[in-house]
Amino acid sequence: MTSILEKAKLSGDQKSHLIAFWEKKRGEAHHVLVKQSRSQNDLVSFQWRVDVKASSKNEETSEAKNEPSAIVEMLVGKRTGNDEDNNVILFEMNKQQLQDAIATLDDLNDILQQKSNH
Predict the structure, then answer these.
(1) Are 67 and 97 contained in the same domain?
(2) pTM higher than 0.70
């Protein structure tokens, strides 16, 4: 910023006021520019719960009886405060799918740790 102002035809007071203003608003300007330049959506909200499927005594198959499943709800979109701009992604995972997802996240975490140590 200072190098740009040196080339400008401004008085010393004008330059010092602009520099002071820039130092004060720099973070805010950065935040606005980043927000406007993002083309991807954000994960606005993430909620999950574990449900247990129960079957009645009259059911012949006991496969689904007492089978836990994870219900996941993600709100994806822009952080505008307007929920109409967001999409809800809702899915269910059985025990094996959840274990696979956790293993994948562990692998990703290991890779990120390795990259950050270099």
Answers:
(1) yes
(2) no
Shared-domain flag, residues 19 and 76: no
CA 52 – CA 67 distance, rounded (Å): 5
47 DSSP β-pair partners: 73
Q: Say yes or no: 16 and 62 in one domain.
A: no
Q: Is 76 exposed, middle or buried (0-12, 13-18, 19+ CB in 10 A)?
A: middle
Residues 29 and 73 in one domain: no
| Structural domain boundaries enclosing 89 | 42-116
* Residue 66 DSSP label: T
| Whether pLDDT at 71 is above 70 | yes
- pLDDT, tens digit (0-9, with 9 covering 90-100), for 2-45: 677 777 888 888 888 888 888 899 899 888 888 778 778 888 89
Element (H, E) at 50: strand 42-53
Q: Are 18 and 10 in contact (CB under 8 A)?
A: yes
